């Protein structure tokens, strides 16, 4: 299994807005080959720190997703978000191979 964390910092007063966006996400990734799960995490001590965690069967499945047209389309839509402060945020991405469960 392979997991990817995308962590970004938003102004704390906008955290609920961002959480709402993800609660109402398109679910397009759910149809990607090898996709397993999605989690949205909020840091308890820093509520403006939001992390998206995705799980795939393998690194290859994840790379197929990020190189595909659906991934590009979703991220292009994000750039057009009306709140330009949120639209301009660049996440910190880390990728991990699951080695034990």
Could you characterize what this model shows?
The chain has 101 residues and is an alpha+beta fold. It has one domain: Alpha-Beta Plaits (2-Layer Sandwich), CATH 3.30.70. Helices cover 32% and strands 30% of the residues. It is built from four helices and four strands; from the N terminus they run βαββαααβ. It has helices spanning 15-23, 59-66, 69-79, 84-87, and strands at 2-9, 35-42, 49-56, 92-97. It has a four-stranded antiparallel beta sheet with strand order 2-3-1-4. Strand 2 and strand 3 (49-56) form a beta hairpin.
How much of the sequence is in beta strands?
25-35%
Shape: globular
**Integer-rounded radius of gyration:** 14 Å
Number of domain units: 1
* Structure class: alpha+beta
Mean pLDDT score, rounded?
A: 91
Order of strands, main sheet, comes to: 2-3-1-4
Secondary structure: helix percent: 25-40%
Total count of helical runs of at least 4 residues: 4
Number of strands: 4
- Largest β sheet strand count, sense and barrel closure: 4 strands, antiparallel
Can you write the helix and strand succession as a string? EHEEHHHE
Domain ABM: 2-90
Keywords: Monooxygenase, Oxidoreductase
Organism: Alkalicoccus urumqiensis (Bacillus urumqiensis)
Protein name: Antibiotic biosynthesis monooxygenase
């Amino acid at each position: 299994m392979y997991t990817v964390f995308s962590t970004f910092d938003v102004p704390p007063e906008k955290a609920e807005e961002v959480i709402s966006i993800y609660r109402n996400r398109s679910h397009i990734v759910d149809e990607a080959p090898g996709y397993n799960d999605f989690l949205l995490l909020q840091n308890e001590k820093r509520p403006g720190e939001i992390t998206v965690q995705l799980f795939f069967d393998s690194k290859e499945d994840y790379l197929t997703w990020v190189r595909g047209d659906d991934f590009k389309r979703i991220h292009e839509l994000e750039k057009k978000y009306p709140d330009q402060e949120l639209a301009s945020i660049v996440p910190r991405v880390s990728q991990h191979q699951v080695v034990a469960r």
